[in-house]
């Protein structure tokens, strides 16, 4: 599902990624851990096509059978919208829209049919246990509920890969555990691939694989 070879990234003469090699299979849940500044977010941004490696010529990146590095910006946006979902720590829900509207936005961008999308959004809300909150705006939802809405939004287009950057970082223990269980349920149900940057040790231990990053490199790979 994801093949990365010798991925390097430099910001202002500082090499943040020093040659990353990765192979992630379909349906795998991979946790990326490591100290702050190790390059985790930068790696996630490159794998999720939000950023590009510096060394396009002597590196390789294949996401869901596509090499995104040489795609034009418009094609990359289309590719991302179809194949990739994102969950961020600060979930960036749009405050003026309801939960269900927030969830449907990526589908509308992809010109999907409204009625199918709405039905699927309700199914996702049901699956996440917050169907009764469909018409609430973000400020009428708890942190855990907002995070679930963000997860539903990441899943509305049925992406093959979901990237999450500290998805449970601002959740209480119970909400965090529920969210983690949800990732595994979704993987079991839809065979989706999850790549999750986390400081949560429990989640890292539950994952199929834990990758530890330190100083721009992957240190160990525990199966
Ligand atoms: P982590 O997620 O492991 O904390 P990051 O990938 O966020 O690490 O950052 C790694 C290093 O790269 C940090 O020193 C950070 O300041 C730097 N960095 C990340 N993104 C940028 C950027 N867009 N411009 C300049 N420096 C950046
Ligand atoms: P994390 O919470 O994973 O450590 P950061 O707070 O380091 O993430 O980064 C948040 C965003 O800011 C990312 O998009 C990253 O690329 C960017 N960023 C991080 N460090 C810098 C920096 N020194 N200069 C510019 N952008 C940065």
UniProtKB/TrEMBL annotation:
EC assignment: 3.6.3.-
Keyword Transit peptide listed: no
SMART domains: AAA
Top-level taxon of origin: Bacteria
Keyword field contains Translocase: yes
Enzyme class: hydrolase
UniProt-listed InterPro entries: AAA+_ATPase (IPR003593), ABC_transporter-like_ATP-bd (IPR003439), ABC_transporter-like_CS (IPR017871), MacB-like_ATP-bd (IPR017911), P-loop_NTPase (IPR027417)
One Pfam entry name: ABC_tran
Family, as annotated: Belongs to the ABC transporter superfamily.
Name used for this protein in its record: Lipoprotein-releasing system ATP-binding protein
Annotated organism of origin: Wenyingzhuangia heitensis
């Amino acid at each position: 599902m994801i093949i990365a070879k010798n991925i390097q990234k430099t910001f202002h003469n500082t090499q943040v990624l020093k040659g990353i090699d990765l192979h992630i299979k379909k349906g795998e849940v991979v946790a990326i851990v490591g100290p702050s500044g190790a390059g985790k977010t930068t790696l996630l941004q490159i794998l999720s096509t939000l950023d590009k490696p510096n060394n396009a010529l002597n590196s390789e990146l294949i996401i869901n059978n596509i090499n995104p590095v040489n795609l034009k910006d418009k094609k990359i946006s289309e590719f991302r919208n179809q194949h990739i979902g994102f969950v961020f720590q600060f979930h960036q829900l749009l405050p003026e829209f309801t939960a269900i509207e927030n969830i449907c936005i990526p589908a509308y961008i992809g010109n999907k049919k409204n009625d199918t999308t709405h039905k699927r959004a309700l199914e996702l809300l049901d699956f996440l246990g917050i169907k009764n909150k469909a018409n609430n705006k973000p400020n009428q939802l708890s942190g855990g509920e907002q995070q679930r809405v963000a997860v539903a939004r990441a899943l509305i287009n049925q992406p093959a890969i979901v990237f999450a950057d500290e998805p449970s970082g601002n959740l209480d223990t119970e909400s965090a555990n529920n969210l983690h269980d949800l990732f595994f349920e979704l993987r079991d149900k839809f065979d989706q691939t999850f790549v999750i940057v986390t400081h949560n040790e429990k989640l890292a231990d539950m994952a199929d694989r834990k990758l530890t990053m330190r100083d721009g490199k992957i240190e160990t790979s525990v199966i």
